[in-house]
Amino acid sequence: MDAKHRIDIATPLLDWYDRHRRDLPWRAKPGETVDPYRVWLSEVMLQQTTVATVRPRFTDWTRRWPTFADLAAAGEGEVMAAWAGLGYYARARNLLAAARMIAAEHGGRLPDTEPALRALPGFGDYTAAAVAAIAFGRRAVVVDANVERVVARLFAIDVPLPAARKPIRAAADTITPAVRAGDFAQAMMDLGAAICTPKRPRCLLCPLNHACAAQAAGTPEAYPVRKPKAARPHRHGTLFWLQRGDSVLLERRPDKGLLGGMRALPTGPWSERPPLLADAPADADWRILDEPVTHGFTHFTIDLAVAVAHTGAASNKGEWWPVDRLDEAGLPTVFAKAADVVRRRA
DNA sequence: TATGCGTGGGC
DNA sequence: TGCCCAAGCAT
Q: Domain with A297 in it: what CATH number?
């Protein structure tokens, strides 16, 4: 598509954005100076996570660690606990690692170019482009799931994802302006969240409907095309609640893998069939509660039997945590659910 | 390119 | 209810 025939998307989109932009705690108001730390933190929190979930967590986080330097000086344990419940815990480890690299090697400031950002842990193509555009005003082609959807519809790109990424990015490049690139990126995302939604898009309200190939064809919901997903397998396991006095035994999970680096209740192997008391953390008079914990992860679902026992013996692994302060332990959701079951049934 | 990695809301 | 989806990254 040569320049003469390019449709000007940026002008009506930015005009729409100036009238409808959302007021979000990490977003500088018109005339305010953007804070790269806040932009970066918001982008990481928002990866695969909704604005409604992130908003209060962002406020709490920035109150506790207002700057790069504050975060770089924090301990890994407290950072992981502060992330509990947000999911994708590698994000928290990478966030801290990047903050420490910035403090040690970049004079306490985020680098302001895409390639330099891309080299930091936790920065992929999307986040590097988004921070370069939003925090530093650089022209960058910012493609997230919203932009994929909007662009796939604008140009009626019918290649199934993920192969569609390349043509979508090329098309996004043709409509990205040289100025206000950060606003343009945020406008595309606001449009995707409010107007160009996955189901029942509000095309009558869309500032780009005159230029949209999918809307012209009457089939906006058909885009983007996706390959069918594999069914999620179902697994079983056992989770151990070992109590000594008023405290329960917690472990820290290995850094890599599922729920990596997070505090947890001990669990046995997770497999096709219930393993019951395999891998119990102690010899004890275990009792299996009649209500299991059910939980869905991205790629499998699981039923966990809850085994409960009391002991007087010390344990050489893990930590004994007061049961009445368990909400301060920073447990991932599956273990917080288990604690609820024990409270009700044990 | 495919897979592993959480969680909560919408329908 | 169960499935879909979301401001992706690492390997």
A: 3.90.79.10
Give A323 CA → C10 C1' in Å: 36
Q: CA A266 to CA A238: how far, in whole Å?
A: 9
Structural domain for A327, as ranges: 234-345
- Local confidence band at A231 (pLDDT 50, 70, 90 cut-offs): confident
Nucleotides of B under 7 A from a protein CB: 1-9, 11
The band of A316, judged by pLDDT with boundaries at 50, 70 and 90, is: low
Q: State whether A10 and A76 are in the same domain.
A: yes
- A314-CA/C2-C1' distance, Å: 44
Here the CATH number for the domain that contains residue A8 is 1.10.340.30
Chain-centre distance for alpha carbon A249: 29
In this predicted structure, what is the pLDDT of residue A107?
84
Q: How confident is the model at residue A2 (pLDDT cuts 50, 70, 90)?
A: very low
CA–CA separation, A114 vs A116, rounded Å?
6
* Last-in-domain residue among A222, A251, A281: A222
Nucleotide nearest to A144 (CA to C1'): C7
A43 is catalytic: yes
Domain-ending residue, one of A201, A222, A243: A222
Between these two residues, A148 and A273, which has the higher pLDDT value? A148
Residue with tokens 């035994």: A249
Distance A313 CA to C9 C1' (A): 42
Q: Do A173 and A267 belong to one domain? A: no
The footprint of strand B (CB < 7 Å) covers: A 48-50, 52-53, 84-90, 162-163, 165-166, 199, 230, 257-260, 295-299, 332-334
- Residue closest to B3, CA→C1'? A299
Strand residues in chain A grouped as ranges (E): 234-244, 247-252, 263-264, 287-288, 293-296, 301-310, 319-322
